[in-house]
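Supplementary Methods. Inverse-folding protocol.

Structures were first reduced to a discrete structure-token string of length 535. This string, shown here, constituted the complete conditioning input.
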């Protein structure tokens, strides 16, 4: 009689507990979507996204929002500048490096961030299908495997089409979940650690994902009875590859700027000053929502209640469900479900210090997967809620592209390429500045215009804030740079015109502008353009 190894014994106990260590049955294969269906699904998703980020036939929409900051930073990096040494920002350099590499390959083009949004969406759908398929043993029927990805695209993803660092970090974390969902071998945990390390290179708070996986391994060991040596081997693979990836990616910047400066921007600044703006604190939860002043935004309003009901409350519901049902339903793949839950919780905690709705959108995919599973774990919920979810997918899947293609729009031929504008005030401002500047000219105050018009920002900061987020030394640098480079135009937005208050360090720049500049343009959104006086 052959003796079982400790690992085999642990797997047997886990199978008894309700783990998923079993061979796939013919019935499982019967309920899975056909393999030929996946390319068609991804093609349909790609068309859905294309029709929202491009105006037919092939004009990209303006890359507004936070993504403009990283796009502008990438152009600075392309010119030989280095983050933390030549310009200030609080995130790791991952997003800047990615866009700089793309600009190096294709040029500084307006279509690049929009193409990346399509790629992010398609990869997220593919990962969601892989993860949902691993939950097939838990009663998730074939067509329902597609529902999480469709919900994700139709609601949160298309409600925040901003190719910023949050999407890249969340995508890498979701990829780590897909790698580890079926088996947690040492090799797979090393790959998962690498992916969490990559996620952390885009957003430092994603280190919580690696810690979440580490906690899961402890939970799993408790129920499998695997040896401590095997657990340590997996933990070492996970955390070792995580640290190695973070260090390897950032070593160049550490060498160029020094550990002290690197830690100031990525750790100390975040801890002391990032929360100076109200939208960067936990109080933003349930306080902000998409604009309802423009009818094309109405389709995005459905995502707001959906995600806020989902996160973080669904994770609490799952813990309760597990506590109540684990013993009575031992054949469910509780190990995989727990990993999805802990991953989603870790992603939520990564943005919990400032849970604005758009940040919650970026970390919602694990929660959506769990929602679909919980819906199908109940006969009643499956009959009532599932049709509602599918109806939302179909309605939004048809309505959103139509809204994008038929709404008001205007076009400009810019240095970064022909671009579609959906906001009249932004179109008016961009057109005004484009007619009065040349590429490589110095300009300050609007990273979006710097990217779209190939303008150069001579200061260390991409924008100003009337709070402690903008430090006094940064204001001094702006004044000195405007003077040294005799910058002709400065963009000023309405939010900077509030009365001086505690934490507002903008008095020197206000004084300098009134002494050396005059307002030459005011736009419908309240933005102003200051032009240097002829001296």
């Amino acid at each position: 009689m052959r003796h079982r190894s400790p690992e085999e014994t642990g797997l047997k106990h886990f199978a008894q507990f309700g783990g998923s260590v079993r061979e796939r049955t013919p019935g499982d294969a019967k309920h899975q979507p056909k393999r030929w269906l996946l390319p068609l699904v991804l093609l349909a998703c790609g068309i859905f996204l294309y029709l929202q980020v491009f105006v037919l036939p092939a004009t990209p929409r303006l890359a507004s929002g936070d993504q403009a900051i990283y796009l502008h930073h990438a152009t600075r990096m392309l010119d030989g500048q280095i983050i933390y040494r030549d310009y200030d920002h609080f995130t790791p350099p991952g997003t800047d490096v990615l866009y700089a590499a793309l600009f190096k390959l294709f040029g500084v083009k307006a279509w690049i961030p929009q193409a990346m949004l399509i790629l992010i969406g398609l990869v997220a759908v593919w990962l969601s299908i892989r993860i949902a398929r691993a939950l097939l043993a838990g009663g998730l029927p074939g067509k329902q495997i597609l529902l999480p990805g469709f919900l994700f695209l139709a609601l949160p993803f298309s409600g925040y089409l901003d190719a910023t660092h949050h999407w890249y970090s969340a995508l890498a974390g979701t990829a780590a979940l897909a790698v580890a969902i079926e088996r947690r071998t040492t090799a797979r945990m090393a790959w998962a650690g690498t992916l969490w390390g990559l996620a952390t290179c885009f957003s430092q708070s994603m280190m919580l994902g690696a810690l979440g996986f580490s906690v899961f391994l402890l939970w799993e060991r408790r129920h499998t009875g695997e040896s401590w040596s095997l657990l340590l081997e997996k933990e070492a693979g996970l955390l070792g590859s995580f640290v190695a990836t973070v260090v390897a990616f950032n070593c160049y910047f550490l060498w160029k700027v020094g550990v002290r400066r690197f830690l100031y921007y990525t750790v100390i600044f975040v801890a002391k000053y990032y929360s100076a703006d109200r939208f960067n604190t936990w109080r933003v939860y349930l306080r902000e929502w998409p604009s309802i002043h423009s009818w094309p935004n109405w389709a995005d309003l459905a995502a707001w209640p959906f995600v806020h009901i989902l996160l973080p409350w669904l994770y609490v519901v799952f813990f309760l469900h597990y506590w109540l049902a684990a013993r009575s339903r031992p054949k469910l793949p509780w190990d995989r479900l727990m990993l999805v839950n802990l991953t989603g919780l870790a992603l939520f905690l990564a943005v919990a210090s400032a849970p604005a709705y758009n940040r919650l959108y970026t970390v919602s995919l694990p929660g959506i997967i769990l929602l679909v599973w919980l819906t199908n774990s109940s006969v009643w919920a499956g009959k009532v809620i599932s049709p509602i979810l599918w109806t939302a997918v179909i309605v939004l899947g048809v309505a959103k592209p139509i809204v994008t293609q038929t709404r008001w729009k205007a076009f400009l031929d810019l240095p970064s390429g022909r671009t579609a504008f959906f906001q009249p005030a932004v179109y008016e401002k961009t057109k005004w500045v484009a007619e009065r500047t040349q590429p490589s000219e110095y300009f300050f105050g609007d990273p979006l215009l710097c990217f779209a018009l190939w303008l150069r920002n001579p200061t260390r900061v991409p924008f100003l804030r009337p709070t402690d987020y903008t430090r006094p030394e940064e204001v001094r640098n702006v004044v000195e740079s405007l003077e040294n480079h005799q910058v002709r135009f400065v963009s000023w937005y309405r939010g900077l015109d509030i009365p001086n208050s505690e934490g507002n360090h903008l008095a020197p720049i206000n004084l300098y502008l009134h002494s050396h500049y005059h307002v030459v343009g005011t736009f419908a959104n309240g933005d102003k353009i200051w032009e240097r006086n002829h001296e």
